[in-house]
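It is worth pausing here to work through a concrete case rather than discussing structure prediction in the abstract. The textbook approach is simple: state the sequence, then state the predicted structure, then interpret. We follow exactly that order.
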Amino acid sequence: MFKPLIFYIGLRYTRAKRRTQFISFITLTSVMGIALGVTALITVLSVMNGFEAELRQRILGMTAHATLTGQFGQLENWQEAENRIKSQPHIQGTAPFISGQVMINADRRVSGTMLNGVMPENESNVSEVADNMEEGKLSDLVPGEYGIVLGAELAKYLGVLMGDKITVISPQVNSTPAGIVPRMRRFTVVGMFKVGMYEYDRNMALIHIDDAAKLFRLENAVSGLRIKLDDVFNAPQITQTLSNELAGDYIVSDWTMAHENFFKAIKTEKTVMFIILLLIVAVAAFNIVSTLVMVVTDKRGDIAILKTQGLTSRSVMGIFMVLGTVIGLFGTILGTVGGVLLALNAGHIVNDIERAFKVRFLPADVYYISDLPSKLLWSDVTTIALMAFVLSLIATIYPAWQASKINPAEVLRYE
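Step two, the predicted structure:
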C-alpha cells in the first residue's frame, strides 16, 4: 500500500500549482489549525502544572506536613508527645505552635489576622518563613518583649514600619470593674516576611510562643505540634501510622486534609481544560477531511489515469493517506515546537506584556499567585503530540477511501 511511488505522488500533491492554489491555502490553514491547537494545549497544561506545583510548594512552605493536637484543641505535656513523635520513622522535624484569630489595630486601620505563636529556634524545622524574611529576623522574637512579625501585605495595609507599635486584640475577655472588656496587648513590629502567597502575606502574623501563651491564657499548653515529613506525597499513610502508634490520645491530620478540596479542584479543572483544548485540536485535525475531499475532487482525472495504468484502489487510498499524514505531521511538529517554546518562556512573555501595556493579569489580592508559573512536563508533550497525530491520521481515512472508489470509466468519459 505504501510503496515509494505512493509516497512520491502523495508528497507531490502537497505542492501547489497555479490552478490549485486555493486548495494549497486550505491545506496551509489545516496545518496552522493543528499547530495552534497543539501549541495552546501544551502551553495551558504547562501553566496549570506550574500553578499546581507553585501553590503546593508555597502552601507546604507555610503549612505543616502534619499536625498533632489534643482531643479538645489543646495539647498538654507537648514535650512528651514531641519525644514520642521524634522516635517514629519519616519524621524530619517538629515544632510547637499556638494559633488563634485576633484583631490587629494600628492607628485607624484594623484587620482580622491569624496569629501564630512559634518557637523561633524550632520554626525552621517545619516551615520556610525564616528564609522569606524581608526585614528583621525570626530570632528577633524574644519572650517577654512582645515583638511581632507581620506578613508584608498585612504591614502594608496597616501602614506600619519596623519598630512601630500595634495593638493585638484577643477574642478572650477580662472582667473589670468597668465591665467585660477584650484582652489587648501592645506589640512592637520586629520583622516582616513575604512568601509570595497573598493568603499568608496578608493574613498572618507571628509572635513568640511564650507571649502567645500569655495572650491566649494557655499557661503551659500549646495548640499542637507541627510535623515535617520526609515524603509529603505519602503524608496520609504516614499520619495514619503515627495515629495508630499514639493509641488515640491525640488527633493527627495532614496537609491533604486541610487542602484536599483545593487540589482536587485544580486537578478537575486541568482535566476539563485538556478535554476542551483537545476538542479544538480535533476540529483542526478534521479540517483535513475537507482539504482531502477538495484534493480528491480536483484530482479525479489523475486518479482515473493512474488506475487505468494499473494502480490499485489500495494504492490510491495510500496516496491520499500520505497527503493527510504529511499535513498532520507538519502541524503536530510546528505545534509541539511552538508549545514547548511558549511554555518555557510564558512567565517572561506575560511580564513583558504587563510592562508594555501597564496592565496586571494576576493581581495579588484576587489570585493566590501574582506571577505566571509554567512547568513543562515532557510526558504531557508526548501525549498531546501523539493524540494530535493520531486524530490527523484518522481524519485521512474517509477521503482516502472515497478516492479509492472512483470509477475510471465514468471519470474519463467526461474528460
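Step three, interpretation. The beta strands are 66-69, 91-106, 109-118, 133-135, 147-151, 165-176, 179-193, 204-208, 224-229, 251-254. The mean pLDDT is 86.
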